[in-house]
Amino acid sequence: MKAIGLYQYLPVENEKSLVDVYLDRPRPGPRDILVAVQAIAVNPVDTKVRAPREGAEKPSETPQVLGWDAAGEVIDTGEEVENFRPGDRVYYAGDITRPGCYSEMHLVDERLAGHLPESLDFTSAAALPLTGLTAWEALFERLGISTTGEDAGKSILVIGGAGGVGSMAVQLARHVARLKVLASASRTKSSVWTKKLGAHHIVNHRHPLDRELQEHGFDTVDYILCLNDTDQHWNAMANAIAPQGRICGIVDNRDPLPLNLLKSKSATFAWEFMFTRSRYRTPDMQRQGEILNEIARLVDEGVLKSTVNQVLEPINAANLRQAHALIESGHTIGKIVLAGW
């Protein structure tokens, strides 16, 4: 089968950073489904795993396959699979500890997959899994926001509203949780995109965010979801969070975070990492499949929309290097999807 892999961790400008390869068809384990991949999306985690790293200069003899956003059709199942059968259309983000989805056929544990939204094609659906799961877990599990509107009217600041996760978080916060949504963006295009997705107010994350919020009449906000530079925004978040408020972050800090800034407010800080359930094989792994099915329902009901903003065809090493370069530029809006072999 066709696949795209890497033998060495290299800058994306190097043509050998991602190369076209041929691999054997994988065989499903007991809980695995084998998916004929029709479309994939690229995320910042892809570029981080691919990037050069100290101590890994020596080329590998076998290719490493990346990729953690896919949509396709089930073509085979393991003997213990209960929720899927050949012919089912699925979408998922998968497991970072296993080979990724830059391949024509891909194995994923059935508990991590959801049924494709009936109203979407593979290309539109591939944009949703990783960012949808991250945003859902951050809002409704880490921040503890109600999915049934019990927190309606409360305020949330989404830092990085136009990115992949931000594009889903803004929609979920506005249309599911019914919060007052303030989202950060720094360019006209990203501001317009974020407004269309449901943000009530746009603030500029190139300026101190606590001051930006005050200009919109908010001395504090009840929740903050930080999808950008955690270190850069930490002091502003500590100033802006309401007493007993909650902050969630997804971007690694470079320096120790002064958590004591949150003490007087009894404020909470939590990390969100979408791969926690699959990496540690938690007892509730199946929750990710359930969330994807819920997202699919909301898409089909018109509550949520796909965040695909650019499509590259076909799926090959050259187009993946282009997508990685775009992600690394830091200026992407929504999601980049590759479709077809």
Automatic annotation (TrEMBL):
Zinc-finger found in the keyword field: no
SMART domains named among the record's database cross-references: PKS_ER
Residue intervals passing through the bilayer: none
Residues covered by the Enoyl reductase (ER) domain: 16-338
Subcellular localization: Cytoplasm
Pfam families: ADH_N, ADH_zinc_N_2
Keyword RNA-binding: yes
GO cellular component, one term: cytoplasm
Keywords recorded for this protein, A-Z: Cytoplasm, Metal-binding, NADP, Oxidoreductase, RNA-binding, Zinc
SUPFAM superfamilies referenced in this protein's UniProt entry, alphabetically: GroES-like, NAD(P)-binding Rossmann-fold domains
GO molecular function (one): RNA binding
PANTHER family attached to this UniProt entry: QUINONE OXIDOREDUCTASE (PTHR44154)
Family: Belongs to the zinc-containing alcohol dehydrogenase family. Quinone oxidoreductase subfamily.
Complexes and interactors: Homotetramer.
Protein name (Swiss-Prot/TrEMBL): Zinc-type alcohol dehydrogenase-like protein
